[in-house]
Amino acid sequence: MTTLLAHIRIKPGKEEKWEAIMRDMVAQTFATEPGVRRYEYWKGQEENSYYCLLSFTDKWAFYHHQMSDHHEGHDFGDVLAGIKLEYIDPVEGADGGLSHTDDPPLPADATPAQRTAQERFPLSIPAWWKERA
């Protein structure tokens, strides 16, 4: 499984456009991606701040999502002021049904899209997570 928390900043005045993009992204993701487990957007307390909780059956399902036509088809540059993707791991027994985030190696027969996604969104498992599993 792969789970992330996206910390998102939106350009002032772009909130309505951003939220329309997110509604479309969520609808298309759940309609076309069997590997998605959680995909939720939240407004933060700071003005123009948002969060997204994303969880996929594995790293490959996340990479598929990132490289999908519906993800690549939006003009994020027009609305995003900044984004930080943070890989996260559930706390055992308080996990809401999610499994641990894993980082399997790129297979020898990986597609070009998987290779590009691996370069853009490398997953790194902190050593201290393994101590807490």
UniProtKB/TrEMBL annotation:
GO molecular function: monooxygenase activity
UniProt entry keywords in alphabetical sequence: Monooxygenase, Oxidoreductase
Domain of life of the source: Bacteria
Ranges for region Disordered: 93-117
Record-linked InterPro entries: ABM_dom (IPR007138), Dimeric_a/b-barrel (IPR011008)
Parts of the chain that traverse the membrane: none
Domain ABM: residue ranges: 2-95
Protein name stated in the entry: Antibiotic biosynthesis monooxygenase
Taxonomic source organism: Novosphingobium ginsenosidimutans
Taxonomic lineage from the root: Bacteria, Pseudomonadati, Pseudomonadota, Alphaproteobacteria, Sphingomonadales
